[in-house]
Specification:
Distance between the termini: 103 Å
Structural class: alpha/beta
Helix content: 25-40%
Strand content: 5-15%
């Protein structure tokens, strides 16, 4: 059989014709419409990427609507040791009134809202406890005593005296129940004092002893206490942390304490824990969450006689010389102001430095 008989017939009209493509679903739509849809999708993807990567603290909701408290994560212990010696060189002047504190509120760590300013952690990790702190040279190895005067703002005369005449290294605690707490915070800081914000919390003998409206209570829900806490936080600006209004059953409750710690961490604040004997559980929770805490050593309010106050000062000195740091506190009153002013001037000769509370946290 010849080769011609094995060759199939070929239509010469189709040899150079391109293959026919099957029409796609989108082929029937106009080209301009397809371009518009593509552009819309790309824009949406870009916007989504921006939202995902945007700084979370740019919105108040990221701070105030989250109600789940993350479990404690292992972090390096904050219980840092202080090398101390009563004979170490003096690197800080407790009476230096030339120190100027950072303006408050600072845009680095503050979120403005219609009803007040809330502290936040800054875009680069800045915190209120750092930005608003009174400068202190941590290379100073002398034993440190921090002293907190509470109740600032209730008595105009006494509060003015405390701001203007007491050593600026004494930390002043502003009461949110005072008239114009924001104005008192500004006045205290303008005199060089580091400040705390008092937070009313349920005392052991509640309701016989009542810290006032908005007190955080163990009987209230997490959301109710959160709303009260945020309202207090908006009452002033420039504080480095919080101090409970008094010894509190609220802060001995691990679940309630965990919620407070969560807010402190989220907002870059420290805590002055003024129950004199915190449990190991409470201490561990604070350290694990990475919240700096200044633990109270001596409170002077139980005995406000001259002898009682003098003994308390001696107890503070002994604790500082033994452990490297101590924290004292008292409610503002005329006798305290007089004796505190005299006592603070004797510390340098004893090899002790009066420090802001931010310099004695653990």
């Amino acid at each position: 059989m010849s080769s011609d008989q094995n060759t199939p017939d070929i239509n010469t009209n189709t040899v150079n014709r391109p293959p026919v493509r099957k029409e796609t679903f989108l082929a029937k739509y106009p080209r301009n419409l397809k371009l518009s849809v593509t552009a819309f999708i790309l824009s949406a993807l870009i916007l989504l990427g921006f939202i995902i990567t945007a700084e979370p603290h740019s919105l108040e909701e990221t701070h105030t609507q989250q109600t789940e408290y993350a479990p404690a994560q292992p972090v390096p212990a904050l219980k840092k040791e202080i090398s101390f010696s009563a004979g170490a060189p003096a690197l800080n002047d407790s009476e230096d009134r030339s120190v100027v504190l950072a303006p408050a509120p600072s845009s680095l760590v503050a979120l403005e809202s219609p009803d007040g300013t809330l502290p936040i952690v800054g875009r680069k990790g800045e915190t209120s406890r750092q930005v608003y702190a009174r400068p202190f040279d941590n290379k100073d190895e002398r034993p440190r005593i921090a002293f907190v005067l509470t109740g600032i703002g209730f008595s105009k005369e006494l509060s003015d005296l405390a701001a203007a005449q007491i050593s600026p290294s004494v930390t002043l605690a502003i009461s949110p129940h005072a008239d114009s707490p924001a104005a008192w915070a500004k006045k205290a800081r303008s005199s060089g004092h580091e400040i705390l914000l008092e937070i009313p919390v349920e005392p052991f003998d509640y309701p016989e002893s009542d810290p006032g409206p908005g007190t955080l209570l163990t009987s209230m829900s997490e959301q109710e206490n959160k709303d009260r806490l945020l309202a207090f936080l908006k009452s002033a600006a420039g504080y480095v942390g919080l101090i409970p209004s008094q010894s509190s059953v609220f802060l001995t409750n691990p679940s309630k304490f965990a919620n407070v710690l969560w807010h402190l961490k989220q907002r870059g604040l420290l805590l002055v824990y003024n129950n004199l004997n915190p449990s190991e559980t409470i201490e561990s929770m604070a350290f694990q969450q990475g919240v700096p805490v200044a633990f109270m050593t001596v409170k002077l309010d139980d005995d406000l006689s001259p002898e009682g106050i003098e003994n308390a000062f001696k107890e503070l000195e002994t604790a500082a010389l033994e452990k490297g740091r101590a924290v004292g506190a008292a409610s503002i009153n005329p006798l305290i102001l007089t004796m505190l002013n005299d006592w603070s001037k004797t510390l340098a000769d004893k090899g002790i430095v009066l420090a802001p509370v931010s310099a004695v946290t653990q």
